[in-house]
Amino acid sequence: MSKRDYYEILEVARTATDQEIKSSYRKLALKFHPDRNQGDKTAEEKFKEAAEAYAILSDADKRARYDRFGHAGVGGGAQGFDPSQFTGFEDIFGGLGDIFGFGSSRRAGPQRGADLRYDLEIKFADAAKGVETHIQIPRHETCETCKGNGAAPGTTPTQCPQCRGTGQLRYQQGFFTVARTCGQCRGAGKVISKPCPDCRGQGTIEQQRKLTVKIPAGIATGQRLRLSGEGQAGTQGGPPGDLYVVIYVREHEFFQRDGNNLHCTVPLPFTTLALGSEIKVPGIDGDETVKVPESTQTGTTFRLRGKGMPDVSGRGRGDLLVTVQAITPKRLTKEQKKLLEQLAATLPEQKVKPKERDDEDDRGIFGKVKDIFG
User: Fold this and answer.
1) Residue 132 burial by CB count (10 A; 0-12/13-18/19+): exposed, middle or buried?
2) Domain containing 176: what range?
3) 282 phi and psi, to 5 degrees?
4) How far apart are CA 58 and CA 61, in angstroms?
5) Contact indicator for 118, 135 with CB cutoff of 8 Å
6) What pLDDT, in 10s, does the model give residues 250-289?
7) In sequence order, what E strands does 158-285 have?
8) Does a structural domain hold residue 98?
């Protein structure tokens, strides 16, 4: 079976520059890599074809011989190139981050500890006033016995003889520079001949740590507090990570929060709304007085400035908005009914006039929409 033209495989013209060949191969290698197409024999063959074509066309001498004599000029293919060595995306992406622009590989030396998250539920009153509370978290801390180096007392880790302390083994293969984690030291760059008996060579031990958390007044659900240095311990002498405490505030049975403003609804007798009065409503600092003028309509909202939630930054406070709602008594005595009837007789009659229909109403909603868009 005759081989396909290498330029055709890489989808470039015969006059393509080295950069164009490199870019096209990169795209095809990503598209047909076996790890992205597991079990797809066609994709695997295309990946091998592209690798072979690039091995020839990326070499100036081999490309010149191929251009002159075809496949015969390069011995029938790319000798010595084995695409199967790129078995995982860590090879093509992680070890080649300087080419593809992403991926990472483990490096020797100090490593910062991981950040931790703790979800903390607090009462509404605690969010309004601020509170100091305690939490207990499990985390890895530096082993006191070995001071974090993982070696038994009296011994120290030594440089890995295989990677010479880099934590990586690099291989050059044509266009690729492959970096793999050293198998002997597992990327640490050092080997431990006698592990610490307490941490078993890990350098860290899991502990339960009790911490104090100061909750500022005005904090809201979803906001988080950062406790610097309270995360997982670092490795090889690296700094610890941070702890993020994510706050969840329980809903209040009376107040609804909107930013720093608080809303509440107060049921009142009809007589209070009609005659007017001063009423007491609960607030976060104690009872607040609201003056209800006579003839107040149900649904009216009164604003008490500066009586809402504190701003978490300490800059002022929101407002308390009190909405009054008329309540209708469910049971009336004969005397109460008589009094209401007497009142009703003195009030002007409220007549509800039917709305006059016009042509616009007769056309209905579809007619109106037609007018808008037509």
Assistant:
1) exposed
2) 116-249
3) -70, 145
4) 9
5) yes
6) 999 999 999 999 999 999 998 999 999 999 999 999 999 9
7) 158-159, 168-173, 176-181, 190-191, 204-215, 224-227, 243-249, 256-258, 261-269, 277-283
8) no
**Tokens, residue 84:** 């199967």
Q: What Cα–Cα distance (Å) separates residue 262 from each residue in 224, 243, 265, 316, 338? A: 21, 31, 10, 14, 40
CATH of the domain at 21: 1.10.287.110
Instruction: Kindly state whether residues 328 and 205 are assigned to the same domain.
Output: no
% of the chain residues with pLDDT over 90 = 38
Tokens representing 368 are: 């109106």
Asked whether residue 229 falls in the same domain as residue 121, the answer is: yes
Q: How confident is the model at residue 107 (pLDDT cuts 50, 70, 90)?
A: low
Each residue's pLDDT tens digit, 300-352 = 999 999 999 999 988 899 999 999 999 988 888 999 889 888 888 888 876 65
Confidence of residue 365 (pLDDT cuts 50, 70, 90): very low
Residue 116 has pLDDT above 80, yes or no: yes
326 occurs within a structural domain? yes
Are 125 and 54 in a shared domain? no
**Do the domain assignments include residue 92?**
no
In which band, very low, low, confident or very high, does the pLDDT at 108 lie, cut at 50, 70 and 90? low
Token readout for 349 is: 């009659």
Read off the DSSP letter of residue 197: T
Place of tokens 């809201």: 220
Residues 243 and 264 reside in one and the same domain: no
The Cβ of residue 305 has, within 10 Å, a number of other Cβ atoms equal to 10
- DSSP conformation letters of 110-134: -BPPPPEEEEEEE-HHHHHH-EEEE
Beta pairing, strands 158-159 & 116-122 = unpaired
The domain total for the chain is: 3
What is the phi-psi region of residue 371: left when phi exceeds 0, alpha when psi lies from -120 to 50, beta otherwise? alpha
